[in-house]
Amino acid sequence: DADQSRPEGKPWIMGIHAYVPGKAVSADGTQLIKLSANENPLGTSEAAHAARKAVADSAEYPDPDARELRLKIGEVHGLDPARIVCGTGSDELLNLAAQGFAGPGDEVLFSKFSFSVYYIAARRCGATPVEAPDNDYATNVDALLAAVSDKTSVVFLANPNNPTGTYLPRSEVKRLHAGLPSDVLLVVDQAYAEYLEADEDDGGMELAMAHDNVLVTRTFSKIYGLAGERIGWATGAPHLIDVLNRIRGPFNVTSSGQAAAAAALDDQEFVSRSRDHNAQELARFTAAVEALGNHGLRPIPSKANFLLVLFEGAVTAEQALNAISDAGYAVRHLPGQGLPNALRITIGHRADMDQIAATLRALCGERA
Ligand code: PMP
Questions:
Q1: Mean pLDDT score of the chain
Q2: pLDDT given for residue 322 in this prediction
Q3: Residue numbers in the chain where pLDDT is lower than 70
Q4: Dihedral over alpha carbons 348, 354, 355, 356 (to 10 degrees)
Q5: What number does the ligand 1 atom closest to the CA of 161 have?
Q6: What is the value of ipTM here, to two decimals?
Q7: Is 46-267 a CATH 1.10.3630.10 domain?
Q8: What is the distance in A from the centroid of ligand 1 to the CA of 92?
Q9: What is the pLDDT of residue 250?
Q10: Per-domain residue ranges for the chain?
Q11: Which residues contact 358 (CB under 8 A, 6 or more apart)?
Q12: For the modification N6-(pyridoxal phosphate)lysine, which residues carry it (predicted)?
C-alpha cells in the first residue's frame, strides 16, 4: 500500500539503542551532584575559560583545520601537527575511524565491558561488532587476538578502560599490536591517559608514530574539564589522518572549543592539580569500598577518574544506587552494558566521596 510506505531506518541502524546519558535528577525531581559522567570535579582551568569567552561573540566559522590548536597539541605532546586531526569530542573520531576503515561485511572488535560507543560506531557503518571475553573486567589480550578473523578491520582498545577503569600495561598493548595483521587498524582510546602517573605510559603514541595501523585518540572532556566544548583529537600515520580528514565535518570543532583547548594545554598546573586530587581521592575511596569486602562490595582497581564497584553480596547495586541518590548523588548503573551488579562512581570532591562511602557503610549496617 503506497500510502502506508515511509522511510525506514537501515536494519543495521535499527539494531542500535540510542545512548542513554546519566541523569542528575532523582525520582522525585531533586537536583543531584553528578558523579555519573566522569567529568572533572575541579571544573575548567581559568585560563581555558577566559579563552573561550574571548571568542564567544565572533560571527565567523571556526578554523576548519584547527591549526593553532594542532600546533599546540604537537608542541605539548612532541607530535607532528600534520599527523593530528581534531574532532567533535573523541566520540566523533572513534565513529570516523570505524566509518573510514570498516563497512558491511567487516568486523569491529573490542573487549567486553569496554566503551559503549564502539558498538554504536561499528553498527553505524554497517560492520559487525564483535566482543571478546574479558579477564575479570579487564581487557584480555589473548581473547582479543583469538577473536581476530579475516573480516576484522578495526580493533578498539580503551586504556584506561571505561566503565571498568582497568589499565593494560605497555607490554600488553605492544603484544596486542604485534599479534594483529598489519591491515587491521588498532585504535588506542586514551581518553583517561592524563590520569595515569606522570611516568606511566601505555606506549600507544609510540606505536602510532612507528606503525601504519595505529591511531591514538585523546579528549579535552576529562582532565581538561572541557566536556561541554566537545573536543578531542587523534594522531597516527599520515594516511590514517587523511582518511579521517576526508569524512569529518569541515567545521567540526567550534571556535570556543579550539581557543579553550589551546589555553588548557598551556595550563598544565591545572592538569597536575586535577591528577593529584584524583589520585588521592581515588585511593581513599577504593580503600573505603575495600573495607566493605565482607559485605560483598568489590572495587575494580582503577587508573581513571572513576571507580567501578561490584555488589556481590546481600547489598545490591540497585539498593546502593537508591541510597546514594537519596544522599544527593547521581552515579552510573549500567545494566544495559551487562553490569547489573555494579555502579560506576566518578571521583568528586573529598567531602562528596566521604559521604558516598558513609552511605555505603550505613547500607551494609556498619557504623557510618
Ligand atoms: N573514550 C572513552 C573511553 C570515554 O569514556 C569517553 C567519554 N565517555 C570518550 C571516549 C568520549 O569522550 P568525548 O567524546 O567527550 O571526547
A1: 96
A2: 96
A3: 1-2, 368
A4: 70
A5: 3
A6: 0.99
A7: no
A8: 10
A9: 95
A10: 2-43+269-363, 46-267
A11: 368
A12: 222
Asked if 307 contacts 347 with a C-beta cutoff of 8 angstroms, the reply is yes
Beta-bridge partners for 111 = 132
C-alpha cell at 63: 578554523
Q: What is the pLDDT of residue 56?
A: 80
Q: Is 221 in the pocket of ligand 1 (CB under 6 A)?
A: yes
Residue type, 46: E
For 243-260, how does the pLDDT look when each residue is reduced to its tens digit (9 = 90+)?
A: 999 999 999 999 999 999
Q: What grid cell was written down for 9?
A: 531506518
What are the grid coordinates assigned to 311, written together? Answer: 555488589
Closest CA to 162 of 348, 320, 298, 342: 342
Give residue 1's pLDDT. 57
Residue 350: what are its φ and ψ, rounded to 5°?
-55, -50
Ligand 1 contacts CB of residue 219 (under 6 A): yes
Q: What is the pLDDT of residue 163?
A: 98
Question: What's the CA-to-centroid distance between 114 and ligand 1, angstroms?
Answer: 11
Distance CA 46, CA 48 (A): 5
CATH number of 2-43+269-363: 3.90.1150.10
